[in-house]
Amino acid sequence: MDTPLSKLVGAKTAKALAGHLDLHTAGDLVYHFPRRYDERGEHTDIRALDVGEQVTVLAQVQRTAVRPMRQRRGNLLEVTVGDSTGGTLTLTFFGNQAWRERELRPGRWGLFAGKVTEFRGRRQLNGPEYVLLGEATDGEAAANEEIEEFAGALIPVYPAAAAVPTWVIARCVRVVLDTFTPPDDPLPATLRASRSLVGIGPALREIHRPSSKEELYRARRRLKWDEAFAVQLTLVQRKHRAAAWPARARPPRAGGLLDAFDARLPYELTSGQRDVGREIGADLATAHPMHRLLQGEVGSGKTVVALRAMLQVVDAGGQAALLAPTEVLAAQHHRGMRDLLGPLGRAGELDAAEQATRVELVTGSLPAAARRAALAEVASGRAGLVLGTHALLYEGVDFADLGLVVVDEQHRFGVEQRDALRAKADQPPHVLVMTATPIPRTVAMTVYGDLETSTLSQLPRGRSPIASHVVPAAEKPAFLDRAWRRVREEVAAGHQAYVVCPRIGDTPAGSSTGPAAEEPPAEDDTGRRAPLAVTEVAPLLAEGPLHGLRIGVLHGRLPADEKDAVMRSFAAGDLDVLVATTVIEVGVDVPNATVMIVLDADRFGVSQLHQLRGRVGRGSAAGLCLLVTEAAEGSSARERLDAVASTTDGFKLAELDLEQRREGDVLGATQSGHRSHLRLLSLRRDAELIRDARAEAIVLVEEDPELARHPALAASVAALVDAERAEYLEKG
Question: pTM (2 decimals)?
Answer without folding.
Answer: 0.64
